[in-house]
């Protein structure tokens, strides 16, 4: 078989086409990883649309039903704060999906004066409060993010057999 100006055996052509397909799949996977790290919509449109897409993807997956109540965070949060809050929401949702055995999660982001409050509540099995911030725990990362935002984190088991995480910080 002739490929361009080079003659290749049909086996070589098949191998080359297979390699190109694998390369295409690898590029798609890499693009997905990069998008999960820093979704383009977060930079272009802000926190609210980025979280809405995250929630929509979770709902489409069927792993969990996610509910969102968020005001227009783009108006009062710096880009850096929006990125960190996105990471916090992402980490908390990952924890709920991986550990909580929950069927639903509620996310609320609001502002009071110069402070924000992020609340994430699930209806899962609750959390062992003695294991909150051990090394390698996603909640330790969330606590570090909250501290960076001059804020705080509170974690409680709820009356609905789930977990409630409250992150508060400055809007700057």
UniProtKB/TrEMBL annotation:
Record bears the keyword Protein biosynthesis: no
Annotated Histidine kinase domain residues: 85-172
GO biological process: phosphorelay signal transduction system
Keywords from the named record: Kinase, Transferase, Two-component regulatory system
Gene3D superfamilies per the UniProt record, alphabetical: Histidine kinase-like ATPase, C-terminal domain (3.30.565.10)
Pfam families: HATPase_c
EC number: 2.7.13.3
SMART domains found in the cross-reference section: HATPase_c
Transmembrane segments: none
Reaction(s) the record says it catalyses: ATP + protein L-histidine = ADP + protein N-phospho-L-histidine
Top-level taxon of origin: Bacteria
Keyword check for Protein transport: no
GO molecular-function terms, A-Z: protein histidine kinase activity
Protein name: histidine kinase
Organism: Arachidicoccus ginsenosidivorans
């Amino acid at each position: 078989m002739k490929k361009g100006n080079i003659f290749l055996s049909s086996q070589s052509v098949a191998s080359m086409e297979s390699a190109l397909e694998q390369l295409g799949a690898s590029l798609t996977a890499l693009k997905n990883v990069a998008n999960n790290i820093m979704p383009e919509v977060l930079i272009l449109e802000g926190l609210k649309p980025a979280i809405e897409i995250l929630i929509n993807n979770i709902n489409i997956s069927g792993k969990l039903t996610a509910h969102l109540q968020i005001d227009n965070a783009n108006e009062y949060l710096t880009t850096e704060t929006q990125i960190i809050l996105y990471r916090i929401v992402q980490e908390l949702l990952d924890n709920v999906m991986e550990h909580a055995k929950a069927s639903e999660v509620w996310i609320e982001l609001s502002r009071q004066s110069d402070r924000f409050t992020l609340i994430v509540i699930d209806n899962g099995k609750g959390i062992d409060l003695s294991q909150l911030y051990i090394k390698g725990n996603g909640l330790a990362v969330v606590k570090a993010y909250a501290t960076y935002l001059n804020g705080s984190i509170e974690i409680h088991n709820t009356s609905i057999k789930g977990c409630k995480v409250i992150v508060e910080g400055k809007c700057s």
